[in-house]
Amino acid sequence: MKLFHSNTPYTFLGVENDWDKAKVGVLPVPYDSTSSYGTGQRWGPNAIIQASRQLELYDIESRADFSQTLGFFTFPELMCSKKDPARVVKAVEESVDEILKAGRFPLTLGGEHSITPGAVRAARAHYRDLCVLHIDAHADMRHSYEETEYNHACSMARCREIVPVVSVGVRSYSQEEADVVEGKYKDFIFDASPFLPKRIEQILNRLSGAHVYVSIDIDAFDPSIMPAVGTPEPGGLDWYEVLSLLRRVGAKKRIVGADIVELAPIPGQPASDFACAKLAYKLCGYALNGKK
Ligand SMILES: [Mn+2]
Hints:
Blueprint lengths: L23 E6 L14 H9 L5 E2 L4 E2 L1 H4 L1 E3 L10 H17 L3 E6 L5 H11 L4 E5 L19 H6 L4 E4 L6 H10 L4 E2 L6 H10 L4 E7 L21 H14 L1 E8 L9 H18 L4
Parallel strand pairs: 1-4, 1-5, 5-10, 6-7, 6-9, 7-8, 9-10
Antiparallel strand pairs: 2-3
Helix pairs in contact: 1-9, 3-4, 8-9
Bound molecules: manganese (II) ion (MN).
């Protein structure tokens, strides 16, 4: 009966799950309990993995198929308690800590943005000079929202309590957030104006440490590129400018972990799923290719 079964494993990129050879640990976190508008982010990791199995693994930019040289190990989906965001964040922290302890690069697939502080906490324990590059349409600087400090609208407020954060693509925030976005953190929050080379250098100069954790809320992109998000904001970032930024950060700093969050797949419209899969693959290339 072998003839009738797909021989592409159900893993990120459809590559063999071999922990010993893998430099990247892919952690799917299907969590979406605190979303305020659109929901369905719990289906995000599944859609990214599905789409990634169709990706062309030859990367034109680097002229290489680096899926084998890097090696990707896909974990089973994390169990997510719907009622207790703090517990989910803790579970993410523990999982990312295990991946880092094993010397692998943690790539977390969300799920909503509330999970990021767990991953950042784990990375901070391994790298004392850690800073975060946060790519998002929203500031996520509410202190708490809908009775929890772990709402997705608070993710960067939590991260900024422990590490310096540089946000880019931000074009929507509340009155409460405006006080800190336009005040205390104004030099560390960039809007969605075009990422010209000079601006990319300005962003880079704000990243204080040598080690960088990258958190990408895909609503940072323009909705024409990433329509499948809970809160689509017009006037977003362009595909190539985000890649330019990530390429520069990868060349100048050491990217030690990443997450791609907030994909809420639209049935029958796989463009966003595919873009997330490609983004994840290219980001791992920028982070790890040519590095020891
Ligand atoms: Mn957002």
